[in-house]
Write a structure and sequence with these properties.
heterotrimer; A alpha/beta (492); B mainly alpha (313); C mainly alpha (321); B: mainly alpha; ABC transporter involved in vitamin B12 uptake, BtuC; two-stranded antiparallel ribbon; 4 strands; C: 321 residues
Chain lengths: 492, 313, 321
């Protein structure tokens, strides 16, 4: 089968403060497996959501077999043969596999549901992808891989012609991944097109026919997989030579400031041990679901731990709690800045001072003057763009919100700063500013732990890299030997 | 072996109900007497029917504590209309009124997205207030012949209204397990995002469950009249206190997406046996209320604790 | 040209939205003045102040639970329980002071009990609603059991009666107690580190926890204060009526909730304060006053007040995002 099966032309989509998609044009053939790659915030998920009807594009058009179509919501998309498998799987845990596959379509009119038929049909679709399992089983009891299979069976039951997969391999083992690839090859044979979003460049070369690179909401280029190299792809994703994207600094690593021994979070699969030095940037790489955020949350005492100790400057933390960690001069900038990093309805100044209220105490009570002074100091120092310090944080852009979070923790004069995806969803200019801030911190003898899913960032900023997988640290890389390929190999 | 264990675990509520029933019958001479048995079945019927309605609301992950007030209001209207228009018209009007109450409560929750607990808390005072106003705060009594006739129909010690309850539970079970509408409720309660993605008209479903509860509250109120023959604005003041445990113990959780009509049926039976047994031990009325309150408290705290126990905060 | 006008209207619209409570209060004052001749007379105003004090103190407690991100339906029951305990103990022991001490302890205990349960369930307003619904029922049962369902009469000490009925330079002592409590609470929550942490914990428990705030302890504090305030309100009330009924708290939680939310305290947590309580309690008192003056049935009054509450929640939701 040939001919442009599915095409988008000049799709644009904006959100307050950011242009997520900028005149995106792309087309895909039946039976083609197309990889969609790009850094975080490049626009991949937004594009998928437009195709699936979760978002409505501001402008542009979609075409199926040359005819323009209008996709207003996910149900329309499904009927047109477009199915999406989200990373946060779209299933109801308490219901059976069969019911999840046919949810919303269990009976016609008001007629009673014929469960035996439903289960039979479900089994047919499951068998078609080689997943032999009792359709009566509750979806909640399946592994991530199993749930993905259910999603694929569901897509088939909608006669999907185009299946969008958002980071499908994130939580799969090697075995499960092989199975997934086999299914994708089978779908290919049936003439079904697949768009495959992934960070893992290795995978793309083994399963995809072609690859499209996105950056800053634009399509940079599309080519067949055999016509590009990994390095070229990374270059296209980042937009410049890797070593030029990051500010220069001197590497001056001093004594140990933090040591973690046999730390395991409750419900975790492995213990971790590592240390950190003054003047050092420790990058933590790994795939989504590897347990990096969970490990830091355990370290900081946000989640329950089942064992392990944290030493700061040789002294044990008084307890596993954020309070103890903060007292020990550790700061934690979380992944989710809106829900966890900020008190979103409060003003900028309230947010900046909230981690160190001692500083705004006047003679007897809290001093408004001191609060204003501190807020102004940081607004100036980190260049937070706002008309006033009493502006609600809700109204700021992503980059400025992150700056408020940074200011908040700066105000605690911490020595160890943990940052989880510090530049996610932030524009290039603000990103560079954050990198400069990190460099400034370590040059003054602080220590930084940086979790990041952006390889260039890890490579460009870290003195040392820990690679995590399934809650464990599987590799420690230093100096000249750090390369993207190495990290990816271990992360797998 | 595993199958037996699973069976026991799945049927623990009916088994517990049976166990308590049997042990009470053997140890307490007044328990198994027809007088007590009839009273037990009667109390099961009225609140049981309302509990089925509440089940629909909980399945969607919502909450509505106005069932007692709706019972009072519809019962008052029913009794007031009884001598004027006769049994069947009065019943139909009362049932419609129950639906109207559900429509109003549901409107504020589904359309304005206001928190259901505050809306139902406010509405329950409003409905009760209306009931008190239209009855001028005096009870409306009527030993209407049809009511008397119904109250006398029995099979052994079991009143006919008990069978009405069973029938209601079975119909509800059918709707919840064999119709698209019923299954949609489970999806909405289980994961509302999935429901949105499937295009399930969430707002309409949410609104409808409040109407269902209103309808069954009205039905329960009428059934109560076949026992009490008198309605007032203060009827079923302990409605939520009694009904919530029945449904939760039965196995439908506050979080939504889990549970069902048959589970509620057994929960109703178990709790009523427990309440009945409590009165056998001649606990003072107020002490009984205190124990009931503690039971409700334990159920709520246990349910929420299990849900949130891995969070520190 | 039109841009300037539009932004002016936007600003006026914004101010109106933020200050609906004040506007409502002013409107009610005008209505009250129109309805009765001696509205602005000192006696009338002082009577109003005395009348709203009990609800005022209750509203302080309720607001504290809102600020920590919860909700409290049990304060009415706590009021009943403390009222009968206060008068009952005073009657049987002869000491009003002992009665008051027992009442305050009971209120503290009830509040702390709620707080502990909130801590254990990691609860937000939904859980708080259910939990306090149940503890309220237990509290009412305790009150009824204690006095076997009958009213208790006692209260002989003059100094005790002065709390509810006396004046200091024509200003009612009850109102003075209320205002002092409000001032103390306001200073604590707006002007101390502790208060700031309390507000942060209610506004966003995750971000507060991450900066080392003991969110669970804050919940305990909020609910304990609510219980304590209910006890204080019980003391004022019984000293005014010189009797206690186990039903005295019926609907008192509702009254406090309306006053608190209409005044501008938000259901989301962390937003609000005693100024809002003052405005809200006065609004509530004036509404009751006007409804009484126009001869509206007490039951219908509840429906009106319920409608006002629903309106207030709608506004709160609109103001939020």
């Amino acid at each position: 089968m040939s001919g442009m099966f599915f095409e988008v032309r000049d799709i644009s989509k904006s959100f307050p403060g950011v242009k997520a998609l900028d005149s995106v044009s792309m087309s895909i053939n039946r039976g083609e497996v197309r990889a969609l790659v790009g850094e975080n915030g490049a626009g991949k998920s937004t594009l998928m959501k437009v195709l699936n009807g979760n978002y409505k594009a501001d402008s542009g058009a979609l075409f199926i077999d040359g005819c323009e179509v209008c996709i207003t919501d996910p149900t329309v998309a499904a009927h047109m043969g477009i199915s999406i498998i989200f990373q946060e799987l779209n299933l109801v845990n308490g219901l059976s596999i069969a019911e999840n596959i046919f949810a919303g379509r269990l009976s016609e009119g008001g007629r009673p549901i014929r469960w035996r038929e439903i289960r039979k049909k479900a089994k047919e679709y499951l068998d078609r992808i080689g997943f032999s399992i009792d359709p009566k089983i509750e979806v909640g009891k399946l592994s991530v891989a199993g749930k993905q299979m259910v999603e694929i069976a569901k897509a088939l039951s909608y006669n999907a012609q185009l299946i969008l997969m958002d980071e499908p391999s994130a939580s799969l083992t090697q075995n499960e991944l092989e199975k997934l690839f086999a299914i994708i090859r089978d779908l290919k044979q049936k003439g079904i097109a697949v768009i495959y979003i992934s960070h893992r460049l290795e995978e793309i070369f083994s399963i995809c026919d072609s690859v499209t690179v996105m950056r800053d909401g634009k399509i940079i280029g599309t080519s067949f997989v055999q016509d590009v190299t990994k390095d070229r792809l990374v270059e296209m994703m980042v937009g410049r030579e890797i070593n030029q994207a990051f500010p220069q600094r001197e590497h001056h690593i001093q004594e140990e400031v933090l040591r973690v021994e046999d730390l395991m979070r409750k419900g975790g699969k492995a213990k971790i041990s590592f240390n950190l030095h003054r003047g050092e940037v420790l990058g933590i790489a790994g795939l989504v679901g590897a347990g990096r955020t969970e490990a830091m949350r355990a370290l900081y005492g946000v989640d329950y731990i089942s064992g392990g100790t944290v030493f700061v400057n040789g002294k044990k933390l008084s307890s596993s709690s954020p309070h103890a960690a903060k007292e020990a001069k550790i700061a934690f900038l979380t992944e989710d800045r809106k829900d966890e990093g900020l008190t979103i309805d409060f003003s900028i100044k309230s947010n900046i001072v909230m981690a160190n209220l001692k500083k705004i105490v006047g003679r007897l009570f809290l001093s408004n003057a001191k609060e204003n002074a501190i807020a102004d100091k940081y607004i100036q120092a980190i260049k937070i763009k706002t008309p006033s310090r009493t502006q609600k944080v809700l109204n700021l852009s992503g980059g400025n919100q992150q700056k408020v979070v940074v200011a908040k923790w700066f105000n605690t004069d911490s020595d160890i700063i943990i940052m989880d995806e510090p530049t996610r969803g932030i524009d290039v200019g603000a990103k560079f500013e954050i990198y400069e801030i990190i460099n400034d911190l370590v040059s003054h003898g602080k220590a930084v732990i940086m979790i990041s899913s952006e390889l260039p960032e890890i490579l460009g900023m870290s003195d040392r890299v820990l690679v995590m997988k399934s809650d464990a640290i599987v590799a420690e890389l230093t100096g000249e030997r750090i390369s993207a390929v190495d990290i990816m190999n271990y992360a797998f | 072996m595993i199958k037996t264990r699973k069976f026991i675990s799945d049927s623990r509520i009916p088994l517990l109900a049976l166990a308590i029933f049997v042990s009470m019958s053997l140890t307490n001479e007044y328990f198994f007497k027809p007088v007590n048995m009839t009273g037990l079945f009667e109390s099961i019927s009225a609140y049981g029917i309302v509990a089925i309605g509440f089940t629909f609301v909980l399945l969607c992950g919502q909450l509505d504590i106005s069932m007692g007030s709706v019972m009072a209001l519809t019962a008052c209207v029913f009794m007031m209309l009884l001598p004027i228009v006769g049994f069947v018209p009065a019943m139909l009007i009362a049932l419609m009124l129950g639906c109207v109450c559900g429509v109003i409560t549901g409107f504020f929750v589904a359309t304005f997205r206001l928190p259901p607990f505050i809306v139902s808390m406010t509405m329950q005072l409003a409905y009760r207030g209306i009931a008190l106003t239209i009855t001028s705060s005096t009870p409306v009594s009527n030993m209407h012949p049809t009511l008397l006739a119904i109250s006398e129909v029995m099979i052994g010690p079991v009143p006919i209204t008990f069978f009405l309850f069973i029938m209601v539970a079975l119909i509800a079970h059918y709707v919840l397990t064999q119709t698209q509408y019923g299954r949609n409720l489970y999806v909405i309660g289980g994961n509302i995002n999935v429901a949105d993605n499937l295009g399930l008209h969430v707002k309409g479903h949410l609104w409808s469950v409040f109407v269902v509860q209103g309808f069954f509250a009205a039905l329960g109120g009428i059934v109560m009249m076949t026992r009490m023959f008198s309605a007032s604005g203060n009827l079923a003041l302990d409605g939520p206190l009694n009904i919530i445990p029945m449904v939760i113990v039965g196995g439908t959780a506050f979080s939504g997406g889990k549970g069902g009509a048959i589970k509620t049926l057994w929960g109703v039976i178990l709790m009523n046996i427990i309440y009945n047994a409590m009165s056998m031990f001649s606990l003072q009325a107020n002490m009984q209320e205190m124990v009931k309150g503690l039971i409700l408290l334990i159920i709520i705290v246990a349910d929420k604790y299990m849900e949130n126990r891995f969070q520190k905060v | 040209m039109s841009d300037v006008n539009e932004s002016k209207w936007n600003k006026i619209g914004g101010w109106t939205r933020d200050n609906t409570n004040l506007l409502l209060l002013i409107a009610l004052i005008i209505a009250g003045a129109l309805l009765s001749e001696n509205f602005f007379s000192w006696t009338n105003l002082m009577n109003l102040m005395r009348r709203i004090s009990v609800n005022g103190v209750m509203a302080i407690g309720f607001t504290m639970t809102l600020l920590v991100g919860g909700f409290d339906l049990s304060i009415g029951a706590t009021l009943s329980m403390c009222a009968v305990l206060c008068v009952g103990v005073e009657k049987s022991s002869g000491s009003a002071a002992l009665g008051m001490a027992v009442a305050l302890s009971a209120g503290l205990a009830m509040g702390a009990f709620n707080g502990v349960l909130m801590m254990v369930t990691r609860g937000g307003s939904g859980e708080a609603f259910l939990i306090t619904l149940a503890t309220g029922m237990v509290g009412t049962a305790i009150a009824l059991t204690y006095c076997s369902g009958l009213d208790i009469y006692g209260v002989n000490a003059d100094w005790y009666k002065a709390i509810g009925q006396g004046n200091v330079a024509t200003f009612p002592i009850a109102a003075i107690i209320w205002i002092i409590l409000m001032v103390i609470m306001q200073v604590i929550i707006k002007k101390t580190q502790f208060g700031r942490r309390l507000l942060l914990s209610g506004a966003n428990k995750k971000s507060a926890f991450l900066v080392g705030i003991d969110v669970n302890a804050m919940k305990l504090v909020g609910f304990t204060i609510a219980g304590l305030m209910a006890a204080v309100a019980a003391i004022i009330m019984t000293s005014r009526t010189t009797a206690a009924s186990p039903y005295s708290g019926n609907g008192a939680d509702f009254d406090a909730a309306i006053a608190s939310i209409v005044g501008g305290n938000s259901l989301v947590g962390g937003k609000g304060g005693m100024v809002q309580v003052l405005i809200g309690v006065m609004i509530y008192g004036l509404i009751t006053n006007i409804l009484n003056l126009t001869g509206v049935d007490s039951v219908v009054q509840y429906i009106v007040k319920g409608a006002v509450l629903l309106l207030a929640i709608c506004l709160d939701k609109l103001n939020r995002r």
